[in-house]
Amino acid sequence: MPYLVTSKVARYSDVAVRVMLGVSLILSANTAKYPIVFSFVGYLSIAAVLAIGILNDRKLEGIVKYLGEKLPIWTVRLVCIFSTLGFAFLIYGI
């Protein structure tokens, strides 16, 4: 598993999924209940792809380590809850 996480296949598949998600959210925003939210999340996904492309693996790992050391564990749980609620909201908005 540690090899898979750092492999190029994982990186390119992550980029491909984010691009497809971003483009599909942007293109389907007009038919959604909340088009502004869908457009925002789509553009945010495209911005994440650009950030992943610009930053190398060491910088991304450094950012994750830095945030992991500075933030308490409850903030990680809060992000997980927010992600779950955000995903549920996107499903509701379809």
Total helical segments:
5
Main β-sheet description? none
Average the pLDDT over all residues and give the rounded result.
85
The N- to C-terminal Cα distance equals 34 Å
* Gyration radius from CA atoms, angstroms: 15 Å
Number of strands: 0
Task: Outline the low-pLDDT stretches.
Answer: none
Element-level helix/strand string? HHHHH
Look at the helices and sheets and give the structural class.
mainly alpha
**In which range does the helix fraction lie?**
over 70%
Strand content: under 5%
Overall spatial form = globular
Transmembrane segments: 12-30, 36-55, 76-93
Keywords: Membrane, Transmembrane, Transmembrane helix
Protein name: DUF3429 domain-containing protein
Describe this entry's structure for a reader.
With 94 residues, this protein is mainly α. Helix content is 85%, strand content 0%. It is built from 5 helices and no strands. Helix 2 (8-27) packs antiparallel against helix 3 (35-54). The longest helix is centred in the last third of the chain and has 21 residues, at 73-93. It is globular and about 40 Å long. The N and C termini lie far apart (34 Å). 4% of the residues are buried. The mean pLDDT is 85. It comes from Kangiella marina. The chain crosses the membrane at residues 12-30, 36-55, 76-93. Keywords: Membrane, Transmembrane, Transmembrane helix. This is DUF3429 domain-containing protein.
